[in-house]
Design goal:
The structure is a single chain. The chain is of the alpha/beta class. The protein contains ten helices and 14 strands. It has an eight-stranded mixed β-sheet. A six-stranded mixed β-sheet has the order 2-1-3-4-5-12, sandwiched between helices. The longest helix has 13 residues, at 27-39.
């Protein structure tokens, strides 16, 4: 697995676009997120359809076409340096095939930030644009708005990425000890399973450091997703696995045996409770960069800063 192209870091005064490719966005949370970004001396602009609601499907932030148009317009605007997703939910998979990937490639590299349902965009940006993306908190996310650690780690990654080349949650433990090198990738487990077989999904994680997390899932469903990845051969040759949060899933002591059963046989280092995903103080993890995982120390050390 090869390292991807790193976008440029942000500087004070940079213009960042906020878009809603998935679920509906509460206006008060959006405004609070914009205030945080302005406090970082950024110039946030909001996509025209960010506060839309789909007439028939309440779980979507407007129509597929409008959500795609907002993302594409923001990405192709030469004045925009980064695109921040407002929230996750569901909906990215409905609109990725509506994007003009040639036009987005021509627009050149810039920063994309998001997680959860945005996993589908992380995969598409990797396979279609060859770009490093940031798996991190979203502009209208309650976990971002109310947690200084999540804000500061994202801010450091955006403005001074050399200061966060070593990522450590502080409380992680090795499920399978050891060290591994590879290119980071991953996201929400359910989305990775759902992406299998689509034009935007990568065929293999060989040589990769796979980051996995999820929210609100029964253990048997998480078992199903992992088993699907295993049976599809996606995990063949993976270098190591980082497990993030499992918020609103079963208590971890009941979930852990299944994770160990499905992942322990890979013969690679596996670290748990790494502090990314749907959790308080979520860390920002860049996808598409070469790094070393030390499961015993609970660290992920990037070869180079996530952004240029």
């Amino acid at each position: 697995m090869r390292e991807l192209t790193r976008p440029a870091r942000l500087a004070p005064g940079a213009r960042v676009a906020v878009v809603a490719p998935s679920g509906p966005v509460p206006e008060e949370r959006l405004q609070a997120g914009l205030d945080v970004l302005r406090g970082w001396d950024l110039d946030p602009v909001v996509g025209p359809h960010v506060l839309d609601r789909h007439r028939a499907f309440a779980y979507l932030a407007g129509t597929d076409a409008d959500r795609a148009a907002d993302l594409q317009a923001a990405w192709c605007d030469p004045a925009v340096d980064a695109v921040l997703c407002a929230r996750g939910g569901y909906g990215v998979q409905r609109m990725t095939d509506l994007l003009d990937w040639e036009a987005m490639r021509a627009a050149g590299p810039k920063v994309l930030v998001g997680f959860s349902d945005i996993t589908a965009l992380h995969e598409a940006f990797a396979t279609r644009l060859g770009l490093v993306t940031l798996h991190g908190p979203m502009a209208a996310g309650i976990d971002f708005l109310k947690n200084a650690r999540a804000q500061e780690h994202l801010k450091a990654t955006l403005f001074a990425p050399e200061t966060v080349r070593v990522i450590a949650s502080g409380g992680s433990t090795p499920m399978v000890p050891g060290r591994a090198r590879g290119v980071t990738l991953g996201g929400c487990l359910a989305l990775l399973a759902a992406e299998l077989g689509t034009p935007h999904a990568r065929p293999s994680t060989r040589g990769g450091l796979l980051c996995l997390e999820d929210v609100g899932e029964e253990t048997y469903r998480l078992d199903r997703y992992l088993t699907q990845l295993l049976r599809a051969g996606l995990l063949d040759g993976v270098g190591g696995v980082l497990l993030g949060s499992w918020h609103e899933c079963e208590p971890y002591e009941r979930l852990r045996p299944m994770l160990a059963d499905r992942l322990g046989g890979l013969g690679v280092p596996v670290v748990e409770d790494f502090g990314f995903g749907h959790c308080e103080g979520a860390l920002t993890v860049p996808f598409g960069v070469t790094a070393e995982l030390d499961a015993d120390a609970g660290t992920l050390t990037l070869d180079r800063p996530a952004l240029r």
